[in-house]
Amino acid sequence: MNYKRLFIALMAVLTSSICQAQTNSPIKEDFQPSTFNQPGQAYPQVNSQGYARFKIKALKADSIRVSLGLGGRGGTKLTKDAEGYFTGTTEGPMDEGFHYYHLTVDGGVFNDPGTGNFYGSTRWESGIEIPAHDKDFYAMKDVPHGNVQQILFPSKSTNTPGRRAFVYTPPGYEKGNTRYPVLYLQHGWGEDETAWSVQGHANLIMDNLIADGKAKPFIIVMTYGLTNNVRPGAGGPRTPGGLTKMILENGFQTVLVDELIPYVDSHFRTYGDKAHRAMAGLSMGGMETHVITLAKPEVFDYYGLLSGGVYTPSELGKIKPKLVFMSCGSKENPAGVNSAAVELKSAGYNTVAYISEGTAHEFLTWRRSLKELAPLLFK
Amino acid sequence: MNYKRLFIALMAVLTSSICQAQTNSPIKEDFQPSTFNQPGQAYPQVNSQGYARFKIKALKADSIRVSLGLGGRGGTKLTKDAEGYFTGTTEGPMDEGFHYYHLTVDGGVFNDPGTGNFYGSTRWESGIEIPAHDKDFYAMKDVPHGNVQQILFPSKSTNTPGRRAFVYTPPGYEKGNTRYPVLYLQHGWGEDETAWSVQGHANLIMDNLIADGKAKPFIIVMTYGLTNNVRPGAGGPRTPGGLTKMILENGFQTVLVDELIPYVDSHFRTYGDKAHRAMAGLSMGGMETHVITLAKPEVFDYYGLLSGGVYTPSELGKIKPKLVFMSCGSKENPAGVNSAAVELKSAGYNTVAYISEGTAHEFLTWRRSLKELAPLLFK
């Protein structure tokens, strides 16, 4: 296993900023509230070109800055109007999809009171959605909907009587005695087990794929990828030592393989074997997938790395998973993913690479990656 | 049905402030982070006497005020130290249990970045937990845990292809073919369907009662008590017109009785009859329970009003529910609840009144009310 290579891949994605294309066309005044706004809140807004506009009431504040904006320029500075509202529009259009952000109000970090809260960067952040041209695949539609269940499973290794995971059960799960395959799907660094079903819309993506007959119904299990032994934010993946520590020493493999999987297999109608079990993850969750699938080849038969590095033929060796799926955004390191796929295919591994067009290290990349991965699983 | 009486009861609870006992003993320096803090955050803190302490970093701010504190005095003003942190401690101890709050930073309303977000007052608010002397009944213990499932049910009346509800299924639900009774449990004004299972700990309360053999296992369904027809915050229960509008005209009865109940009965293993169906709610949810149980006596057989008014013999008339449960905090209107219970009992209705000692119109009152109500249901 090549940790240096993994680390370099991680650095590449972490340093990819939210890119904005410069544009010469005038800003269209067709702004609408972001779909993630709190009930009744008019701001933040987005327009059809992808610009975001903010409006914050703080009558006596001197300065408010939004962390979203052109990379390296410190985001978007708001200006105060005569009524004491701070307003401002991003200098250019944002990438399509979901973006985390926060406000800096007179030197303090706060969330935008207009929008919801999403766990990212080891804190509850604000979030905004720039409507994507292909947003239909994660839209709430008039189709049968699966459930997302919060389970509390005992975890002796972390001394937790009820450790939280979310379990997507597909429409129809509640009827009959059918057994289902399971995908274990991990969030990224700084996020938690809520990410995939809230900002990721994993449940709606699956509901729509299943309704269209494009994916087999399966269960998805999402849990927190760190343990009590490593405090979130401590070290982090920004140093090779931190990366190794988090993935190998933090005990997540024990929680996942020895505690969560047996709980899921005894509390849900699963097959409970390798042939019906997949693991995938985004960013740090992809690196966890990488490490755990190689360490426990008897547990999973389908591997997915979403913006989370690549496999090499030498590290796979005699392990022959039914599928190796690798993806990233076109603004990340597509050449790395594509060349790794070529190498794996020529070595005889069933490999699929996917590049999300026009996106960086953000959730639209991963929503699309799940949409591409799901139809390939358990066939 | 006496709307004037309902309205007066509502006013009484809405105007009851968060009371704090004055104390002459010195503040104990045994402050600990609140249990609802974000991961790794040291503040806000609470001490063993119930004082709350706040610390916010905002180097260039002029003024920060916390909305929690002595009623009528505008909360707790923080003072800036030499390093740019704003700190402060409540003037007196807070009531035990959960409190919503927010910050006013230089005239703008923001949440405390140290703690989690809880939907109340029609916005995501900050929250703090003052440990209660009886907190054991809602603690996470090493007992079998039920699940809390997010369901998305079709609602034609509100033109929503997937309207959200949360469904608590008790431990063991996943095994066998047993059918279960159902409690429909409503949140209060300004809250939403997340309230009972997050700040209310309804799932942990049930897990513990069931493990102790004190309550029969049953399903709890929690959904949003307003509809698209009434914008949250519009009117509100602060005027009699607003109250009537919200409860009678907003269409929630249609969503609950004609859409949600049939969905639950067809997707979960319920009995599906009146004898195995209860409705209860807190504050506005109690008033919804009041109105809907009287309008649809064929649907529910157990009624619970938690800080949500009372029933009278004249309005019940020939309706003979198996149980009428009414509760409130001792700092609300206990005399009203107790005298209504006396009246109902002497008229032959099976009635139980419960007063939560030392609490006001807040969640510890309702957590305790659920603990008292649950063992009385479906026996």
Walk me through the topology.
The structure is a homodimer of 379-residue chains.
Chain A: H1 3-14, E1 32-33, E2 45-46, E3 52-57, E4 64-66, E5 76-77, E6 79-80, E7 85-89, E8 97-101, E9 103-105, E10 108-110, E11 117-120, E12 123-130, E13 147-155, E14 160-169, E15 182-186, H2 202-211, E16 219-223, H3 240-249, H4 252-267, E17 277-282, H5 284-295, E18 302-306, H6 313-316, E19 323-329, H7 334-346, E20 351-356, H8 363-373
Parallel strand pairs in A: 15-16, 15-17, 17-18, 18-19, 19-20
Antiparallel strand pairs in A: 1-2, 2-3, 3-7, 4-5, 4-9, 6-7, 8-12, 9-10, 11-12, 13-14, 14-16
Any descriptors?
homodimer, alpha+beta, Immunoglobulin-like, Rossmann fold, eight-stranded mixed beta sheet, 20 strands, AB_hydrolase_fold (chains A, B)
Query: What fraction strand of chain A?
Result: 25-35%
Percent of residues in helices of chain A:
10-25%
> How many separate helices of chain A?
8
Q: How does the major sheet of chain A shape up?
A: 8 strands, mixed
Name of the CATH superfamily of the largest domain in chain A: Alpha/Beta hydrolase fold, catalytic domain
Determine the most extensive contact between two protein chains.
A-B, 50 and 50 residues
Shape annotation of chain A: globular
| Order of helix and strand elements from N to C terminus of chain A | HEEEEEEEEEEEEEEEHEHHEHEHEHEH
CATH architecture of the largest domain in chain A: 3-Layer(aba) Sandwich
Mean pLDDT of chain A: 90
How is the largest sheet of chain A built, in terms of strand order?
13-14-16-15-17-18-19-20
